[in-house]
Amino acid sequence: MLFIRYILLLFLLSSTVTAKMYWVFFEEDLSRPAAKLTEKAWDRLETRGSITARGNRAVSHSHLEQLKQSGIQIRTVSRFLNAASAEIIDRDQLRQIMQFPFVKSIEPVATRIVRRPLPPEGERLSKRSDLTYGESLAQNQMLDIPAIHKLGYDGSGVTIAVFDSGFDMEHPAFDQMHISDYYDFIEQDRDVNGRDTLYEHGTMVLSVLGAYYPGELIGPAYGATYLLARTEETSTETRVEEHYWLAAVEWADSLGADIISSSLLYFDFDGTKEDYSLRALDGNTTIVTRAANIAAERGILVVNAIGNEGPGDMSLWAPADSPNILSVGAIYENGDITNFSGRGPTYDGRIKPDVVAMGSSLVVASGTNHFSGGTGTSFATPLIAGLAAQLLDARPGLSPNSVISLFHQNGDRSESPNNTYGFGIPKLISLFEDARYLDVTHCAIFPNPSAGREITILLSDPVASFSKEVSLYDIRGRFIAQLESSVESSFSLQVTLPGNETLANQLYIISLEAYGKRYSAKVVYIKT
Question: What domain range is 465 assigned to?
Answer without folding.
Answer: 437-525
